[in-house]
Amino acid sequence: MPERTRSEVQVGWIPPPEGWVQVQTDGSVLSPSGLAAAGGLIRDCLGRCCAAFACNLGNCSITAAELKGAAVGLEIAWEKGFRHVELKLDSTTAITIMKNRSDNDHMHGLLAQHISNLLNREWIVSVSHVYREGNQAADFLANFGHNLTFGTHHVDVDSHELCKWLDYDVMGVSQPRFINI
After folding, report:
1. Could you give the C-alpha distances from 53 to 70, 105, 145, in angstroms and in order?
2. Alpha carbon distance 40, 50 (integer Å)
3. Domains and CATH numbers, the chain
4. What is the rounded CA–CA span in Å between residue 158 and residue 49?
5. When you count CB atoms within 10 A of the terminal residue's CB, does the N or C end of the chain come out lower?
6. Could you tell me if 40 and 27 are in contact, meaning their C-beta atoms sit under 8 angstroms apart?
């Protein structure tokens, strides 16, 4: 088998096009307890945070946590009236489930069907992968969810800790990542 070449790239937040919002979500599962959380935020093309949330999910898989984060992010975007949405998450498994729009995955069938129903509404949603290094604000919110009571909570978009991550993104701070080429 040929050896893969690895290259270092700089990864940071990339804003959505003008007139669009970006929903960034993430999931988190603590080991060995299996306690899960999810979080996310909605940002405009200037990096302004329009909404943020964190969820304590109890026990579930990392894929279920990623899917739940995506579902909540889409629900909030719809409720706020956004109709041009980029959904970005760092789980290729969750993205595959969403793009296949199949309820044949028995473990995540109901959640996959719910997301499919959300995606089929009268709006334009693009779903794509982002490396973890470009999803730091959502990662912060997912980890924050572990500290909350069970359920979904809206997070103050002006909170000091969240603003730190948002400011880093707007300033263009990036982090190195090695990728296979």
Report:
1. 11, 27, 8
2. 11
3. 21-162 (3.30.420.10)
4. 9
5. N
6. no
Classify strands 84-89 and 21-29 as parallel, antiparallel or unpaired: parallel
Q: Is-contact 129 92, C-beta < 8 A?
A: yes
Condensed to tens digits (0 to 9), the pLDDT of residues 88-116 reads 999 999 999 998 865 555 688 899 999 99
Beta carbons of 153 and 55 less than 8 angstroms apart: yes
Other beta carbons less than 10 A from residue 167's beta carbon: 12
pLDDT score recorded for residue 104:
57
The H-or-E segment that residue 167 falls in is: helix 160-171
Q: What is the pLDDT of residues 118-130, one digit of tens each?
A: 999 999 999 999 9
Contact predicate 17/118, CB 8 Å = no
Residue carrying structure tokens 């730190």: 164
Instruction: Give per-residue pLDDT as tens, 23-68.
Output: 999 999 999 999 999 999 999 999 999 999 999 999 999 999 999 9
